[in-house]
Structure to design on (543 residues):
């Protein structure tokens, strides 16, 4: 009894340490792997830039038609918003729900289940490493966009720090949501329509389409109680908007809350999903 | 003539093949419904903040959306599946099987695939276009209608040529997948009047990726904005692009040496 109670904290400590080592190793692997494919990564990013550029041009045109601003948002603000958007969007790309279908169909899950580390940890670590590559590649892109569109951006040091944390919060929120949604693949092979629906709701309520203040009041009210804006609007706004120190802290707190809620949902869904699973091939 | 016969045969084959997977129809329908509602919400949101966008009213832009959805449906029904299959086969070496067939290779690689359920998008686009037109006070003249169909056909030809040029590049560049992603992103520019974009982008989506010709020009025809010079330019550009694509395809074939099929 006493031996066990002595050993337990020690085991947990070394468990934590080996977990950190695992994360670092998986991230390093992802960084090395993805840097090899920098051209492919770049084309992928360029394809994504079309979307915010379209939104930006549309809203800038409207602002110009109405004497320089829409609902108090200036053309410079829109430029800053949609340039920071590109990084936040990239941070929002995680192990997506549709890939669970692939993972199950191709039997990759069998291999993953045999590993001593839970698959979720591997996904988080690998994509986190990839994000490091993405951030490095993003810098010249942001520079080019800034030359083209003239953003109004003057954050203070608190905002920069909050932003640096918030983009990782966004990454974890989206990971939890997508992994939970991916559990659907244990029940059906036709999740595509559900995933599309999720993306559409997310597009409208996260701030991906427009800064949320341009949405009707009731939409803003609804989105306050949903996770989407904390993974998109809040990170952008933390750098571009004029949030006070308290507001920044509250936002980061909301992010933490949604990460924990997402994790809880995933654990519940995973438990009932894995009971249904029987391996095919591998 | 034989090109048409082959196309017809492959179309029938493709339709029969796809008809086996009926649930896919409902999935397509659901996905289209989601995309359509999203598009309409975006349009409503924009026009809740302004009366007109660069001279285009909401019903007029609804017509643009309709044409863009129609063209997108056409691309996904036939052009894109054929071209992605071509890219894939160049990499896997399976293209040899097609090249040994006794028919024009360009025709063969362009008509083999038909995703018939994507026709849902074409129909939806047409309905959106119809609703948009019914809300425009000034009617559509016969000449406008004729110009519309001509412009639409030319636009489809140009998009096909653009894709063929891209896919032919697969003979030299191995990984073309990200080009596909890039196209999907850029195609969304067609939902808005081309005039709002800065000059460099306007040039790009007109001549580098002919989206303006495929979407904006037909929509201009229906809203009585099209002058005959633009239509003539579309004809010339379509012919030139087709010749270029054909030439590039044949050149690409010559440098293709098979890959252990």
């Amino acid at each position: 009894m006493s031996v066990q109670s002595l050993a337990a904290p020690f085991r947990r400590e070394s468990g934590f340490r080996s977990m950190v080592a695992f994360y670092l190793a998986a991230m390093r692997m992802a960084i090395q792997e993805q840097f090899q494919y920098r051209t492919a990564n770049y084309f992928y990013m360029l394809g994504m830039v079309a979307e915010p550029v379209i939104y930006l041009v549309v809203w800038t045109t409207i602002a110009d038609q109405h004497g320089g601003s829409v609902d108090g948002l200036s053309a410079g603000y829109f430029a800053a918003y949609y340039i920071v958007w590109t990084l936040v969007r990239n941070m929002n790309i995680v192990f997506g729900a549709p890939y669970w279908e692939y993972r199950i169909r191709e039997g990759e899950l069998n291999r993953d289940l045999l590993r001593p580390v839970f698959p979720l940890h591997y996904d988080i670590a690998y994509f986190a490493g990839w994000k490091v590559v993405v951030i490095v590649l993003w810098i010249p892109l942001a520079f080019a966009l800034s030359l083209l569109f003239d953003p109004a951006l003057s954050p203070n040091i608190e905002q920069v720090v909050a932003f640096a944390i918030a983009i990782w919060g966004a990454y974890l929120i989206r990971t939890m949501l997508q992994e939970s949604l991916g559990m659907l693949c244990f029940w059906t092979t036709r999740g595509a329509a559900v995933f599309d629906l999720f993306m559409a709701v997310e597009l409208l309520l996260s701030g991906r389409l427009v800064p949320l203040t341009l949405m009707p009041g009731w939409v803003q009210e609804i989105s306050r109680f949903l996770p989407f804006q904390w993974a998109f609007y809040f990170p952008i706004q933390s750098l571009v908007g004029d949030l006070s120190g308290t507001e920044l802290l509250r936002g980061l707190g909301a992010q933490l809350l949604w990460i924990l809620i997402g994790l809880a949902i995933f654990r519940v869904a995973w438990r009932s999903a894995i009971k249904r699973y029987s391996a095919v091939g591998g | 003539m034989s090109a048409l016969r082959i196309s017809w045969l492959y179309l029938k084959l493709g339709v029969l093949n796809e008809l086996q997977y009926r649930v896919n129809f409902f999935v397509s329908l659901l996905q289209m419904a989601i995309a359509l509602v999203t598009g309409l919400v975006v349009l409503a949101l924009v026009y809740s903040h302004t009366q007109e966008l660069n001279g285009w009213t909401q019903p007029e832009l609804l017509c643009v959306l309709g044409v863009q959805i129609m063209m997108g449906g056409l691309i996904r029904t036939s052009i894109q599946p054929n071209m992605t299959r071509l890219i894939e086969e160049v990499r896997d070496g399976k293209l040899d099987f097609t090249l040994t067939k006794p028919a024009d290779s360009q025709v063969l690689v362009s008509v083999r695939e038909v995703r018939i359920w994507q026709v849902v998008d074409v129909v939806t686009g047409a309905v959106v276009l119809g609703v948009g037109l019914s809300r425009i006070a000034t009617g559509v003249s016969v000449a406008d209608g004729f110009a519309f169909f001509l412009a639409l056909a030319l636009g489809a030809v140009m998009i096909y040529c653009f894709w063929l040029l891209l896919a032919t590049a697969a003979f030299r560049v191995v990984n073309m997948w990200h080009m596909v992603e890039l196209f999907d992103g850029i195609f969304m520019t067609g939902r808005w009047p081309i005039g709002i974009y800065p000059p460099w982008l306007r040039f790009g989506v007109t001549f580098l990726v002919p989206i303006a010709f495929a979407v904006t020009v037909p929509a201009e025809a229906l809203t009585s904005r099209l002058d005959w010079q633009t239509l003539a330019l579309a004809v010339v550009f379509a012919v030139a692009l087709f010749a270029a694509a054909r030439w590039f395809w044949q050149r690409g074939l010559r440098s293709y040496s098979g890959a252990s099929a």
Observations:
- Chain B has a mean pLDDT of 88.
- The longest helix of chain B spans residues 58-92.
- Chain B touches chain A through 36 residues (CB under 8 Å).
